[in-house]
Amino acid sequence: MVLDSTLPDINPTNAMVLLGAYLVSGLLFSPDLDLKSAPYKRWRALRFVWKPYQHFVPHRSWISHSVLFGPVLRVIYFTFVMSLLTFLVLACINALVPIDPTTTMLNVATQIRGWLEAHPVVIAYAANGFMRGGGAHSLADHVGSWREGKGGRCVRGERGGVGVGRGVWWV
Asked: According to the model, what pLDDT value does residue 125 have?
């Protein structure tokens, strides 16, 4: 049982943070964001955010599929792009209503920093779950590639065998 593990400060909240980060990592921040994949399509209207990432990060490279570097890169990239977009939106609002976009961004950043400093255990659980989510994907890709090289065959779509829908099944 998860709550009986040897992780420090494990409680239902931290367990949910770990699980939530794992799911978000696998469903939204997958290493396959470098393709027009299901995780990429889940972003819907915000899909454009990942276009530069797709251009600069080669698929299945050590950059995207590294257990540590890949998830960290995606979070830093996303944070940078969203900060830039937020600043642009604030600058547009400033044209209509006088506000100071720079001061507003600094105030928000200060608030976020304060929260992060006040909750280091929660951040550790979130990072742990996020790394594990990306790592599970990378491991599945490597095992699948190894198995394909050992004579297993990949059946995609409905081409026969055990292929179902859009999934990939190893036989």
From this structure: 94
